[in-house]
Design a protein that fits this description.
The chain has one domain (about 60-245): Porin (Beta Barrel), CATH 2.40.160. It contains two helices and eight strands; from the N terminus they run αβββββαβββ. It has helices spanning about 1-35, 180, and strands at about 60-70, 80-95, 100-110, 130-145, 150-165, 190-205, 210-220, 230-245. The chain is elongated, with a radius of gyration of 42 Å. It has an eight-stranded antiparallel β-barrel with strand order 1-2-3-4-5-6-7-8. It is mainly beta.
């Protein structure tokens, strides 16, 4: 009888230990499966924005301003040219997608070589006198090949120029009755002018454009001293600047 009681007690004890070990193992297994709290790492979302997506060529008006360069000759027989700097302001009114009217104001200033104005070995006291050109032009322009990145625009503009050639030459004197003749300069005057060339536009957004303008410049100046003739000169000009397209559409 004592043996049966001892056996039952031992069986109950072993069963209890087995259950306790099983519950502990299950708890550890559940903990291992759950593991540490997961952490999600992301680099964020990148949104690609195309600044040229809204580029169109349906604006009615635009305006541009650039730093300008002009090469010219201040006199009919001068060997030295003048390299002038200034500003180039242009505005356009577009009649259709491809055709518009452009108005243009240009101002150039600098110094020029001068002809021999004295018999002394130095060639005279007048060296590098100031010269300037101020142009007012208008004419048609044509929108050529274009896409959202850029465009080529051709134009032909005509009008007038004011050539200021005598600011540093002084006034006529009995010894030097015509200062312009002394340095082989044109007289200060208003004369016909025209340009032919165009713009290279590189769009930076729907409204703002980087613009390069390149032109052949034709002027028709004259002299009032013998042989009192006039002549056409063809020179080169360019400018680099920005253009703004106004929101109003055709």
């Amino acid at each position: 009888m004592r043996f049966r009681v001892s056996f039952v007690a031992s069986f109950v004890a072993l069963t209890g230990l087995a259950l306790a070990g099983g519950l502990s193992a299950q708890a550890q297994n559940n903990t291992a499966q759950a593991g540490p709290n997961p952490t999600t790492t992301t680099n964020g979302t990148y949104i690609t924005v195309d600044p040229l997506a809204k580029v169109t060529y349906d604006n009615r008006f635009d305006i541009s301003l650039g730093l300008a360069y002009d090469h010219m000759k201040a006199g009919p027989t001068l060997l030295q040219g003048s390299n002038l700097g200034g500003l180039d302001l242009a505005g356009s009114y577009w009649l259709t997608k491809h055709w518009g009217v452009e108005g243009n104001v240009r101002a150039y200033a600098g110094t020029s070589g001068a002809g021999i104005n004295s018999a002394d070995p130095n060639g005279g006291n007048i060296k590098g006198p100031f010269v300037a050109e101020y142009m007012l032009l208008a004419g048609p322009e044509w929108l050529g090949p274009h896409n959202k990145h850029g465009a080529l625009i051709a134009h032909f503009l005509a009008g007038g120029t004011y050539g200021d050639f005598g600011r540093d030459l002084g006034h006529p004197t009995p010894v030097d009755p015509n200062p312009f003749q002394a340095v082989d300069f044109y007289n200060t005057q208003i004369a016909p002018a025209a340009v032919i060339g165009g713009h290279l536009d590189l769009n930076r957004s729907a409204r703002w454009v980087f613009r390069v303008t390149s032109d052949a410049v034709m002027t028709h100046y004259s002299i009032n001293y013998p042989p009192k003739n006039s002549q056409f000169d063809v020179n080169y000009a360019m400018s680099v600047g920005v253009e703004y397209k106004f929101k109003k559409k055709r």
